[in-house]
Write the structure tokens for this entry.
Amino acid sequence: MTSSRILALWMMGGLMLLSVPALAAPAEPFGQETVETRPPRHPQKAKAARAHDHKHAHGAADARGHSHAPGEAHSHGKGENGHSHGIETENLFGFTVGSNTDNAGSKSIAMEIVGRLAKRDGTYRAIGQKLEFGYGVTDNLNVAFGVFSALHRIRGVSDLDDLRFFGFNGLGTEVRWRLLKRGDYPVGVTLHFEPSWQTHDETSGKRATKYGAENKLVFDAELIKEKLFAAFNILYDVERVRERGGEEWEKGSNFGFAVAATYQVAPKTFVGGEVRYLRAYDGFTLNSLVGSAVFLGPTLFAEIAPHTWIAVAWNAQVQGKEVGNPAHLDLTNFERHQAKVKIGMEF
């Protein structure tokens, strides 16, 4: 073998040796250099381990994250900072509301139906509907926009004209501002404002221009972890109404309290009860009382599909008094029965 053939074989062997590390461990960029990475001996086991050893950031205020044990489920539905860590209480109590607010960027749609049924005589049915679209501006501030419709069936009721009506009844907004978050504090506290413009009087059903606002200071607490919840509302509602063709504006207001409790009787199903004490005034200043009523009744809340729920409440007037009228119950300023059904979806 000549020296030139020996030199050529030596050079070819050197090139093959240099190429072996490149085939065994591919190079990956790392800054301005390269580092070698070896494929794992058991790719499937390594992949499964990585799937359960990850961290989730909980917003800018808490970026510590947390890891999940193998097989642990994690819900990314409605909840604080995008995770479901507890029971949502806003619609848990019927007419009484809870303090929860949706997380920032959340969207929802809900249909609410409120029926006010029966006066002292005749036939009286006033049913209001609201289609509502909600948005989470921040974790502590939610807004919603609603479209109202109304149905009235009145016949033979003292001091009210017979009337049949169904149609559009105005627009409204809702603002919920959470002051204290339940969990960080023993009690959650939220301010609830609901101004509206309506085209018909709520009681008589007649064509009118009505401006009003439902205002609540909301408190709630978790008495037994994810089982028993209670809420307390302070209510102050105002309205200013002028019937079509009239010249004077009528002013009125309601002030009162609501207390409710509910218990989880099955997964995602709550049954409870509430008591509301309402006082009706002529004017906004609460110095001209015209009547009062106590309402009592059961409530139900259930999740009927993922991110879809229904809330139902029925209240009966069990005590009341109209100023200047010796009859039992106040069936001039209030109704004998009030019912509420609300169905919502979050996405």
Observations:
- The CA atoms of residues 153 and 164 lie 5 Å apart.
- The helical segments are 3-24, 43-51.
- The two ends are 80 Å apart (CA to CA).
